[in-house]
Amino acid sequence: MHVSDLPVPAAVREHYRASGIEELYPPQAAAVDAGITEGENVVAAIPTASGKTLIAELAMLTADGPALYAVPLRALAREKYESFAELPGVSVGISTGDFDSPDEELGEEDVVVATAEKVDSAIRNGASWVEDLACVVVDEVHLLGRERRGPTLEVTLATLQRRAPGVQIVALSATVDNPEDVASWLDAELVESTWRPVSLRTGVYDGDDVTFDDGSTLGVDVRDVGPDEERDTEATASLVEGAIDSGGQCLAFVRSRREAESLAARLAEAELAPDAAAAGDLAEEIRGVDGTATGRRLAAAVESGVGFHHAGLVDEHRALVESAFRDRELGVICATPTLAAGVNVPARRVVVRDLERYTGEEMSKLPVLEVHQMCGRAGRPHLDPYGEAVLVGDERTAEDLWDRYVDAGPEAVESQLAAREALRTHVLSVVASGFADSTAGVLDLLDATFFAPQSPDVDLSGLLATVAGELAEMELLDVDGDAGGAASADAERGRGDGPDPRATASRALAATDLGETVSRQYVRPETGARLIEGVRTIESMADADVTALTALGVVCATPDMRGTYLGNRERADVYRYASRHAAEFTTAPEEAEDFEAWLCAVKLARLVFEWSEGASIEALVDRYRVGPGDVESHVERVVWLLGAGDALAGTLGADVDVFDRVRRRLADSVEDAPGDEIGRQPR
Ligand code: ADP
C-alpha cells in the first residue's frame, strides 16, 4: 500500500514522503487492513523498528475526535511528543507533570501524549478531557505483565472504555507469546508479525566463536586474559571494536551500573571516537551539567567515543548520551537493560554480555522478552545492511543460552492485578473517583480487566472483600457505612464457619475523606496510612522537636519512596545519626517493623535534608554512595510525598504545616539548582 492511498490530510502524506516513507511496511499495511483508519480496535504485536509509530498516527489522525497516546516512561513521552509535533496541522499536548491536577487545558489538543500513570491520575481527578477521547493508543502494552505498571495499565484501560464509550483502542506490543489474549480482552483485531525492515541475526558466543541462527559464524579475537571471569569482557570488547571498525555502532548490555561503567572504562582504552572533535565538545557539555565523579567518568569515556547509560545518571546526561549516539558521535553505549525498554537508539550490533542479574536475593536469568528487546535494537533502518545480536556465553553456558533465548519464543503476558497491594490501590481509586459505589460495581469493573479472562477460576469477590476490609482498617473506605471493617470480618470468616463472602449480597462502598485524598494524591493506600499516622504523631509532639527531618522521616518511610541500600560501614553511621536526632523522628528504632528499612528511611531523610540545606549533588553522591540521578529522583519523590502528607494533614484538620514548609523549601531549592528539572511526578 502506498502512502498516497492513506485517508489522512494531503499535508501529512507529504510529510511522510519527505521523511522517506513511500510504501507502507507489511505490518502497517496489515493494520490498515484490520481497520485502523476506520475506528477498529487493533493490537499490533510486532518487532522494534517495524513502524509502530506510523500505525499509531494513522489511528489518531483518522479518529473522530481527540486522541491520547499513553507511554510507560517520561523519556518516551518527550520523544513521541516531538515526533507527533512534526505532523502538519496537528496540535499536540504533553502531560507528565503534577499528579493531583486534571490538566483540563489538554482538552484543546488533537493529540495528548501522557504517561500511563498520569492518565490514571487524571481520571481519578475527574479530568473531563478523558471523556471526549475518540482514540487511545497504548505503547508497550506487554508491560501489562509488570508488577507495578501492569495493574495500573489494565484498570486504566478498563475505566477509559467506560468513561469514553466507543473509544478506539490501539495497543502496541513487543512480540509476546499470547498477543491473542490481549486482543481478545480489548475486543481488537490482532496484527502479529515478525517482519523487520532490517534483517536480524542472533548468535551465541561459546568462548571460541559466535554461531548465528542463519548458520553463519564469526571468529572472535580475544586477547590473552588471566582469570576466567574477564574473558566475557574481552570477547565483548572484541565484538564492539569489530562492529565499529566495519563502520557500525554497538550497544553492549551488562547487569549493573557498576559493570556498565567499568566496561566503558575498558572499552575507552581503545580510541573508538568516530569524530574526535564532536566527542570533545560532548565531553565538555557533560562536564558542564554537574561536577560529580560519575559525570567526570562519563566525560572521560565519551572522549574515546564510549558512553554509558544507567538509572544512576541524571536525566540530562542520559539524554546527551542517547542523542550523541543517534548522531553517531559515540561508537558504543555500555548500558543496563533499561535502555532497551526506553528510547529509540538502534545500533548495528548488540552485545549482551550479562544474561543474569542480581535480584536482591540471588542471581536470576533475564526474561526472554527483555533479551529479545535488547537484541531487537540491532539494525538501523536505512543505515545498516543487517543487524546482529550476540549473547556472550562460554563453553558451559552457550547451549543453554541458545535454547532459552534464540530457539524459544518470549513469555506470555500475565496479569498482575491479583496482587493484594495492586488491588487495594485500584479498588480505592475506582470507588473514590465515583466509578463504583458497591462491591457489585467494583466487580463489574474488574470483570472488564485483563485479569478476569485470564483467571476465570479466581474468586474475585472473595479477594475484593478482603481488600475492602483492609482499606476500611486503614480508614480509607466505608464498607456498608461501617468504617470498622465489616467486610474484613466477613473475609476472615470466609473460610471458617461464618457466611461465605462470595455468597453475600453486594455491599455499599464509599471512600472516606481520607480515602479520597489518598486517591487524588496518587499515593498507595499503605503510603496514605503511614502519612496519616505520621501526621497524628507530629500533632502530639512538642513543637521544638518537629523539624524538617521529622517530615522527611515520615515520607521516606512510606512504600512509595523507592528504597536505597546500606553499605556495612554506613549502617553504624546512620544509626548514630538517628540516635542523635531521635526526638525529631516519629518512629523509634524499637518500634520499627523492619529495622533495615527503618535505617534506609533515615538515610534517605538525611540525604534529602542535606540537599535542602545546600549540599551539592557531588558531595551527596560521594557521602552516600548513590548515583547523581538517584539524588534527583529521591528529591522528586519526596516533594510529591510531602504534598500528599500536607493534603492529608488538611483532610484530618490537623494543625501540622511541616510537610508544606519542607515541600516549599525543597521546591525552591529545585528551582535554584541549575540544570535540574525536578517536577512533582516521580519517575
Ligand atoms: P517502532 O516500531 O520501533 O516504534 P518506528 O515507528 O520508530 O518503529 O519506526 C522506525 C523507523 O522506520 C523510523 O525512522 C520511521 O521513520 C521508519 N519507517 C516507518 N515506517 C516506514 C515506511 N513505511 N517506510 C520507510 N520507513 C519507515
From TrEMBL:
Renumbered residue ranges of the record's region Disordered: 483-503
EC category name: isomerase
Helicase C-terminal domain segment(s): 238-431
Presence of the UniProt keyword ATP-binding in the record: yes
InterPro entries for the chain: DEAD/DEAH_box_helicase_dom, Hel308-like_dom4, Hel308_SKI2-like, Helicase_ATP-bd, Helicase_C-like, Helicase_Hel308, P-loop_NTPase, WH-like_DNA-bd_sf
Binding residues for ATP: Q28
CDD domains xrefs: SF2_C_Ski2
Keywords: ATP-binding, DNA damage, DNA repair, DNA-binding, Helicase, Hydrolase, Isomerase, Nucleotide-binding
Pfam families assigned to the protein according to its UniProt record, in alphabetical order: DEAD, Helicase_C, Helicase_dom4_arc
Gene Ontology molecular function: any one: DNA binding
UniProt feature, compositional bias: Basic and acidic residues: 490-500
EC number, as in UniProt: 5.6.2.4
Protein family according to the UniProt entry: Belongs to the helicase family. Hel308 subfamily.
Function: DNA-dependent ATPase and 3'-5' DNA helicase that may be involved in repair of stalled replication forks.
Quaternary structure and partners: Monomer.
HAMAP family found in the cross-reference section: Helicase_Hel308
Alphabetized PANTHER family for the sequence: ATP-DEPENDENT DNA HELICASE HEL308 (PTHR47961:SF10), DNA POLYMERASE THETA, PUTATIVE (AFU_ORTHOLOGUE AFUA_1G05260)-RELATED (PTHR47961)
Official protein name in the record: ATP-dependent DNA helicase Hel308
Organism: Halobellus limi
Protein's gene: hel308
